[in-house]
Amino acid sequence: MRYDTILYTVTDGVAAITLNRPKKLNAFNDLMIAEVIDAFSRAAADTAVGAILLTGNGRAFSAGQDLAAVQEAGDNFPIGEHLRNGYNRLIKQMVTIEKPIIAAINGIAAGAGCGIALAADMRIAADNAAFMLVFSRIGLIPDSGVNFLLPRLIGYGRAYEMAITAKHLPAATALEWGMVNRVVPHEQLMETAVAFAAKTADGATIAFGLTKRAMYKSWTQSLNESLETEADLQEIAGRTPYSLNAVQSFINNKVSSQ
Ligand code: T3D
């Protein structure tokens, strides 16, 4: 698929997906949703890709749904169907791809843009970035996974307040609340995120993918069930060449230092 609204590159084991409608603050139209879904599928299927980096071009990460496109569609816009066919598919895809997704939040992440940032496994934010649940400003409830993901990261009270006030949450507060993993000066964002993604892609990628599966699965499991999942997945992780070699080199180093 040729992309018109995103950029897609693969370097050093990292697939970088860049939302690329900067004049519209990377608001999502239908084409962009389809292209991002296609790019994630491509990155998931590519054995050369060990980590995925998601960012936005220009001054925003994403301003969410393109409201001009919604207005053009008229009063009978089938919003539920639009969510099911678009954002819901994208969010489900992001949380089930067994490769780490790192979002480099370069500016405002609003509405569905915030939900998509939350569906990444880690977030590195520029110091001038911010999150905003703008939905209530236009009389909507949060969507794109926000109701599920945000209270789990920052707690119900904070998430609910963000939803009903629709206020900017600056990166520094997002860090304090556990919504982002780190905040860096804006000019260092891409360098930091790319280096982190490349290091991740060079690590125990199968184990990283299985860790994601185990953690997401645990949210709907009892402790006993989660322990069972860990045992099952460890059977797989423990037999990977990465694990076998790492254990062997640990033993070898011990022997040679005796
Ligand atoms: O249909 C469904 O599936 C439902 C799904 C809904 C999911 C959602 O995401 S609902 C929420 C939709 N998003 C919003 O309501 C955010 C709208 N944007 C804003 O509130 C502001 O733009 C920001 C607070 C994000 C940033 O403000 P500011 O002052 O920095 O920038 P700006 O001047 O408002 O925007 C710059 C340009 O981007 C401007 O275009 P122009 O006038 O220069 O040609 C503006 O219209 C455009 N833009 C920004 N956000 C959107 C947008 N165009 C279309 N849709 C947008 N969401």
Write out key terms for the chains shown:
258 residues, alpha/beta, 2-enoyl-CoA Hydratase, Chain A, domain 1, 6-stranded mixed beta sheet, globular, binds ligand T3D
Précis, in short:
By secondary structure, the chain is of the alpha/beta class.
Describe the protein in words.
This protein is α/β, with parallel strands linked by helices and 258 residues long. It folds into 2 domains: 6-201, 2-enoyl-CoA Hydratase, Chain A, domain 1, CATH 3.90.226.10; 205-257, Lyase 2-enoyl-coa Hydratase, Chain  A, domain 2. Helix content is 51%, strand content 16%. The protein is built from 12 helices and 10 strands. It has helices spanning 30-45, 67-73, 79-85, 87-96, 112-119, 146-154, 156-165, 171-176, 189-201, 205-218, 223-237, 241-256, and strands spanning 6-11, 14-19, 51-56, 60-62, 101-105, 108-110, 122-126, 130-132, 169-170, 182-184. It has a 6-stranded mixed β-sheet, with helices on both faces. Helix 1 links the parallel strand 2 and strand 3 (51-56). Helix 4 runs parallel beside helix 5 (112-119). The protein is globular and about 70 Å long. It binds ligand T3D.
Helix and strand layout, with pairings?
Blueprint: E1 6-11, E2 14-19, H1 30-45, E3 51-56, E4 60-62, H2 67-73, H3 79-85, H4 87-96, E5 101-105, E6 108-110, H5 112-119, E7 122-126, E8 130-132, H6 146-154, H7 156-165, E9 169-170, H8 171-176, E10 182-184, H9 189-201, H10 205-218, H11 223-237, H12 241-256
Parallel strand pairs: 2-3, 3-5, 4-6, 5-7, 6-8, 7-10
Antiparallel strand pairs: 1-2, 8-9
Ligand T3D is lined by residues 24-25, 27, 63-68, 70, 79, 82-83, 86-87, 108, 110-112, 134-135, 138, 140, 143-144.
